[in-house]
Amino acid sequence: MRLPLTMYLVIFVSASVVFYQYHLSKAWMISHNNSQFRDLSAGPIEKGTNYTYYASKNISQAVPCTDFSLSNPQLPPLYIITPTYRRPEQLAELTRLAHTLMLTPNIHWLVIEDAEQKTELVTDLLQRTGLSYDHLLAPMPEIYKKKKKGPKPRGVSNRNKGLAWIRKYAKDGVFYFADDDNTYDLQLFREIRYTKQVSMFPVGLITKLGVSSPIVRNGKFMGFYDGWMAGRKFPVDMAGFAVSVNFLLERPKAEMPFKPGFEEDGFLKSLVPFEPYEIELLAENCTKIWVWHTQAKRNDPSQPLDFAKYNNTNLVLLKHILV
Length: 323
Ligand code: UGA
Ligand code: MN
Hints:
Layout (H helix, E strand, L loop, with lengths): L1 H36 L13 E4 L6 E4 L13 E7 L5 H12 L5 E7 L6 H10 L3 E5 L4 H4 L10 H14 L4 E4 L5 E2 L1 H7 L5 E3 L2 E2 L6 E7 L2 E6 L15 E4 H5 L13 H7 L10 E2 L1 H4 L4 E2 L21 H8 L2
Parallel strand pairs: 3-4, 3-6, 4-5, 8-13
Antiparallel strand pairs: 1-2, 6-12, 7-14, 8-12, 9-10, 10-11
């Protein structure tokens, strides 16, 4: 009688262990599969609803977050306007930005060079990305280029060219001025895509304050936090706002002034009628930083190559890539 009882006990314990392990491995498989197959471009999903509430416009804005796959044509188009110019860091910066955009669905990239002619290496880079893009030219007008003293209006002719393109070809969606040297979180593009008029959000690494952002209290816009107020109505950085295409189309005169330091303010003021209380607040009521004003260290142009000495070597080809 004693033997079978022990046997029953052994069978029971072993069965329990096997059963427990099966559950453990199943749980691991589920979580493992989730992380493996999770769509990289998927936004946060709130349980029990098809919408995630990103705080916004002094009224809450519902952002549909069901279809973020890279090939989803139903997403509103997002136009990214990027000024760029020839300098040692140009290809490195554009490579980094291109790779960010390659992870973002339904975008059209307007790469606008401050140059008289297209840079072949930029054309080549754009082609290799497989992105939908236009490569345009908009040289800085001579009067500003020749300026000896003070800052120049960097990227302004480029951005105005981008606005002209939007007016001509875009019908809906949203546009965003993305300088070539910033760092962008993919979450930024998920959120700005649903901008109804003008949305704003924090930009990290700006001035000594370390951030430029709308000030929000209890979900309400209270003013701006920026290290350089300068009497501006909209003291924000170029990377700190996005605008709906229709909102622009309804304002045929809106453009960016050639006024160093006042480009953002001038452009946002030209979107009249538009007042700060109407700003749609993104990035979870401006509590997150989805874009950074990185600024690469400036590099001197590479030193001349001794072509006689290095004739017929790879260095000759590399030198053509470098500035
Ligand atoms: C800051 C802001 O973030 C810019 O958006 C603003 O245009 C600039 O100040 C300004 O007010 O002048 P910052 O980092 O100082 O930016 O400027 P850059 O990154 O040097 O230039 C802004 C954009 O214009 C970049 O995409 C750059 O490639 C382009 N750029 C710059 C030109 O196309 N031509 C130039 O001669 C210089
Ligand atoms: Mn910059």
